[in-house]
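Example 383.
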Amino acid sequence: MAAEFDSLEKCLAKHLPAADLKTVNQILYGRELRSLSLPEDATSLASERDLEVQGYGIDAHQEELRAARVVRVGAIQNKIVLPTSASVDEQRTALHKRIGQMVEIAAMCGVNVLCLQEAWPMPFAFCTREKHPWCEFAEDALIGPTTKLCQEWAKKYNMVIISPILERDEVHGDTMWNTAVIISNSGQVMGKSRKNHIPRVGDFNESTYYMEGDTGHKVFETQFGRIAVNICYGRHHPQNWMMYGVNGAELVFNPSATVGTLSEPMWGIEARNAAIANSYFTCAINRVGTEHFPNEFSSGDGKPAHKDFGHFYGSTYVAAPDASRTPGLSRTRDGLLVTELDLNLCRQMKDGWGFRMTQRLNLYAESLTEAIKPDYKPPIVKE
Ligand SMILES: NC(=O)NCCC(=O)O
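Predicted structure in complex with N-(aminocarbonyl)-beta-alanine:
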């Protein structure tokens, strides 16, 4: 089998002359970002642990009345550690250990707010359509083992942690949800944000496992800014992004699990467009690697049954409201992206481009109220 393509940015850097590369990068990625120098002990520990680390700074103008609001944001992408045939407990414990090593490095890099990938303590088994044993990965959002561990890390490292899990809500009929748990840097659970839109595409057969989220568009006011979480498939819905902005988010995470053949051309566009349209920062995180499952499953497309989901292409990145963005992490390796950003850029972009001021929400509120009525007739004008 051919080796997976590692990174678009590395490919451009390898093949373009330096002057062309500068212009191409400017056109593709906006203004040149500051490269963030990270502590030597962190980078050498990262290479010992086979972890790619990249660091960037996204600056804003110095304002006269407001001090800069500089925050270090960390994003982790990773492969599963053990084969999916190992026991549920062994698989989850191995992931806890591996991510713990990465969180330690994030702390050494001064990260204040850290987000993990979608359903990080488990393989992305929804493709199988089997319930056993995969439903056993679901855990309580408040007192489950993964939340408890993240609380320890959050407190130890003074770091806000966003931990996306498959949630089991025992109080409400053992219902499952796809949930991001937001843990304050004090170690307290601030709350949870459940995935609003569930994919029904390709092998993403997730609607048979968990329900459409009922937590709306919560924004969490942390010590390091107002953050929100738009889980994976929710990034295809501009209204979903928009509501987090309407509710005051300055930084929206998009923890994901998605594969190349399905979504890669959309990946660099959606979270970035959301950052521009809503005058906030976004951070899109995708898992890496190919996960193989014990039993064959078919994709309902006439092709032969198979045991893997395809390649999760990583490429985690941060996008800014001024249309600049960081390069992506590798398509193949575990990685930590550290981005130092000044949240003041959000208001500066609102002032500069006026996208929020010119948004005309009332126009759309009225139009949509009409459009969802059963007797609605779209105003199509014919010749
Ligand atoms: N996990 C998930 O929602 N994946 C759906 C595929 C995609 O949105 O790219």
